[in-house]
Amino acid sequence: MTDQADPRTEQGGYTTARNRPRPLGERRQWPRSFAGRLTGPLPGFLELAQAGRPVFRPRADPAQVAALPYDPAPLPAVGTGTVAITWVGHASWVIRLGGLTVLTDPVWSRRILATPPRLTPPGVPWRDLPAVDAVVISHNHYDHLDLPTLRRLPPRTALFVPAGLARWCRRRGFTCVTELDWWESAQLGGVSFDFVPAHHWSKRTLTDTCRTLWGGWVLTGPDGHRVYFAGDTGYGHWFTEIGRRHPGIDVALLPIGAYAPRNLLRTVHTDPEEAVRACLDVGARAMAPMHWATFLLAGEPPLEPLARVRAAWQATGRPRTDLWDLPVGGSRVLTGP
């Protein structure tokens, strides 16, 4: 049995929150295109070609690459009421809450299509991972949806993906795939997986632009702890709405890299200052930067995102301890209410 998704609502044509979680593994039908969800113009062919020129992706300064923060350590112990996050690199995290181990946009590959090799190794060796209960995917770009990494997982691993992407996953052998529209949720083991909007787009081949949706995830544990994983996004109005619908976010995992040149990337990637503003918009208690120090995807120097996010955070006057600027492989543990 299939469910015909209705993308129309009273809020500008976007799907509103629904009271009941969607069934796990539900098979659904979707519109042919999600281009109507775009909040900014997509780069054209000439702009993409220009962005790929060496002048915009210069060779990384070896001294800066050597100084990138990389400090792998054993995963911290977790108990009842404990939330732990560990940065693997780029947009890949190990999140443990509510008794589950969840991976976000897992990329353990040394390199991805049309991208230079990793600057830093994965912060958690694959062999050191506990059993993975679930994976959340933000969108289908190659640096966020990495098939070689996904193939390391058992086929029964629960995958939570954007609308339109389940078919791709099922064709590759995964049997528990749940696809959601914006503002929809599903539950696994007492943890709520809520799919929320992002200012981005999707494309994996020459002919599938915006055929699948894109977004971020709010994970809520049985004790009410909340982690917001923004995925890949530019800055815009959705952050305030996410915070309104999901109050009490404990930590926001927000992208701070791949932002230069701004005239090409402003609509799809936040810079460090915009990421700090997004954290304030969603009302998160703490911010953990990501989407830098792993792949050289744009024109900024490798260490610049860290310096800028620290300065932007200081300018807010918020406690320095609430900026979780982790090294690749670093962890933070959240306990208590």
TrEMBL record:
GO cellular component: cytoplasm
GO terms, molecular function: N-acylphosphatidylethanolamine-specific phospholipase D activity; zinc ion binding
Pfam family, one: Lactamase_B_2
Region named Disordered: 1-31
Residue ranges constituting the Metallo-beta-lactamase domain according to the UniProt record: 102-292
Coiled coil: none
Protein name: Metallo-beta-lactamase domain-containing protein
Species for this entry: Streptantibioticus cattleyicolor (strain ATCC 35852 / DSM 46488 / JCM 4925 / NBRC 14057 / NRRL 8057) (Streptomyces cattleya)
